[in-house]
Amino acid sequence: MTRSTGARRGFIAFYSFILLLILGIFGISYWAVSRLSTSAIVQEAGRIRARNLAQAGVEKVMINILNQYRLGNHNLTYPGKFSKERTDKEYNVEFGDGMYRVESVQPYTMPGSSKIMTAVPYVQRQTVTGTYDVWKVVVVGEVSEGGIRARVETLVKVIRQFARY
Questions:
Q1: Rounded distance, CA 73 to CA 84, Å?
Q2: Beta bridge partner(s), residue 90
């Protein structure tokens, strides 16, 4: 074996090692980035589930408000001194992967004023055709894995129209 053949083998081995090292660095960086993006995707999925659970609570409150208005009950403040055990069960529901909890249902008060938005005249084409109430609803949705929470605050407007002839 000549000296040039041994030097050539050493040269090829050295550059093969450098090439493997570079490919290894790229592989490890790709693995780390994909792992981080996967955990971010899982976390965002949990946030979406928490928001959907909170929205389910809002829908439940809206159904309850409409049913109570049909029965003639216009005092729906929650939690209030008249909250019943049934209402507490309907407003705090657990599912397999999370839960929603209604924190409050209160008449809406405009910011910077003391005016409560109940029995406000409802006007259509310059004619008073009824009244409306605005309720502020606050619901929290929680996902059990990861302890992710989403808080939804919304306004619900209920229009009570007079009979039209």
A1: 14
A2: none
Euclidean distance between CA atoms 51 and 156, whole angstroms: 18
Highest mean pLDDT out of 17-26, 54-63, 74-83, 153-162: 54-63
Q: Compute the CA torsion angle 60, 66, 68, 69 (nearest 10 deg).
A: 160
C-alpha closest to that of 154 among 84, 103, 114: 103
Reported as type and span, the H/E element at residue 124 is strand 120-124
Amino acid making up residue 164 = R
pTM for this prediction: 0.72
User: Which of 116, 147, 145 lies closest to 132 in space, CA to CA?
Assistant: 116
| Structure tokens belonging to residue 69 | 């208005």
Tokens linked to 138? 């606050």
CB 127 within 8 A of CB 33: no
Q: For residue 72, how far is the Cα from the chain centroid? A: 32
Specify the higher pLDDT residue, 84 or 46.
46
For the chain, what is the radius of gyration of the CA atoms? 31
d(CA 8, CA 61): 79
Place of tokens 């090692």: 17
Neighbours of 48 (CB within 10 A): 13
